[in-house]
What we know:
By secondary structure, the chain is an alpha/beta fold. Helix content is 50%, strand content 9%. The chain contains four helices and five strands; from the N terminus they run ααβαββαββ. It has a five-stranded mixed β-sheet, with helices on one face. The chain is rod-shaped, with a radius of gyration of 68 Å.
Amino acid sequence: MAKQDKETYDSYEKDVYDNPPAGPMGVHRGARSAASRAMPYVIVIIVALLAGLLFWGVYSGEINNLKMPWSSQESPTTSSAEKSKSGESKSKSQSDSASGNKTDASNAGSSTDSQQNDQNTDQNADQNAEQADNATAQQVVNTGTEVRVVNATNITGYAQSKADVLVQAGYTSVSASNPTGNVPSQTVVWYQNETDKATAENVAQTLGISNVQQSDGLVTPIVVVLLD
């Protein structure tokens, strides 16, 4: 039998799906705010800016000068280490300078002492030279000195012959005599004082005598004792 009545929405029984709750449910969401809609664009812009800054920093080298938060604590440590090294270097430099000054002062003192020693040596040499000159001046051969020739041999006229040799050598005060008292064991030339030493040595050389001695108690400045 054909249906004469047209089926409509109202022809069906009502169920739970015909009474939906108020507001959006499931995939049906309400309208979003303008801030939430603009947030993705803002994030994209920020990421693009950061990428551009990173590229510029790498390309220009400025990224090496970028200080990270964790590097701020290392910097004072590095600075302190550098200051410590600088202080040690300065201390070492000052120590070396002080050591160099002490060495220079020591060298200067040594040089001064050496100069003083040289001056003292020169002065002593001058004094010794003066004394030698004085001694030489005092020990000049004096042919006018009195000389007595004693004949202690058995040869008659031996003392006179030697006296004549001295006279011929330029001596002006020569006498010959015989021995009185003790005589030495060998031929000798005696002299009285140091001032007569040079003359006594000249007399001994003239007569060929090698034995020259100083003797106390002489009456004549120079005495020649002749023995066999």
